[in-house]
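Supplementary Methods. Inverse-folding protocol.

Structures were first reduced to a discrete structure-token string of length 246. This string, shown here, constituted the complete conditioning input.
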């Protein structure tokens, strides 16, 4: 049973509320729900070294083993999005991993760039897919010009980031005036999520730091003058949303 925790905790990373309810502890990390915005998250947040350690020991290898399937999916995503903009322009894939979306968008005619913090995935992108515009960095530390990308994709990334607000602010800054952000993250309110949240396969200590529903994800985006314009139906417990400037 959940209970209000009396431990020293950080305020909610989304809305800054101090009203937090303890849900459970897993691998010595405490999962809580914000009473005000509903964000489920690890609190206190693991330090940066612990979070980075989840990308070691071949984090991207499982993706590389499914390369054919991943490339086909990336091609579908790219073709769907390319129909929504007037001209083929610049594409940034945030958390590009082994580079499949960068490759597919490049093949579609985009000037494509990818960033990730996992060196193994980037090594595959460079040496197996022959991609040159991929780099090991975070979105907050890139040198790209503001308003320079027509499409930004962030697939299964936002639940990992160091700071929700700096990440979202940089998405906003890099997006061209008529640009689109394609965002995917686990969906806390999906009907397949077990009532005993601890059993949900997306609960991953030190790795998935935040768990959104559509309402609080929209809340975060609105704080940075972004809005959801489309939500795609999915049988899996994921939020798939298309975002643009307000």
């Amino acid at each position: 049973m959940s209970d209000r925790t009396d431990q020293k905790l950080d305020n909610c990373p989304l809305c800054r509320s101090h009203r937090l309810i303890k849900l459970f502890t897993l691998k010595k990390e405490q999962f809580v729900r914000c009473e005000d915005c509903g964000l489920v998250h690890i609190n206190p947040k693991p330090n940066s070294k612990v979070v980075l350690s989840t990308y070691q020991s071949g984090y991207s290898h499982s993706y590389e083993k499914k390369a054919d399937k991943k490339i086909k999916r990336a091609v579908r995503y790219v073709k769907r999005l390319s129909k929504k903009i007037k001209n083929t322009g610049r594409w940034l894939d945030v958390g590009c991993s082994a580079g499949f979306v960068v490759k597919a968008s490049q093949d579609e005619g985009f000037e494509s760039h990818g960033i990730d913090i996992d060196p193994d995935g980037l090594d595959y992108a460079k040496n197996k897919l022959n991609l040159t515009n991929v780099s090991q960095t975070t979105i907050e530390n890139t040198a790209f010009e503001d308003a320079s990308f027509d499409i930004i994709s962030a697939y299964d990334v936002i639940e990992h980031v160091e700071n929700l607000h700096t990440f979202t602010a940089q998405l906003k800054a890099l997006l061209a005036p008529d640009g689109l952000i394609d965002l995917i993250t686990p969906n806390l309110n999906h009907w397949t999520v077990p009532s005993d949240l601890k059993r949900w396969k997306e609960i991953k200590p030190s790795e998935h730091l935040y768990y959104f529903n559509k309402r609080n994800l929209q809340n975060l985006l609105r704080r940075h003058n972004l809005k959801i314009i489309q939500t795609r139906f999915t049988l899996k417990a994921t939020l798939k949303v298309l975002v643009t400037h307000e």
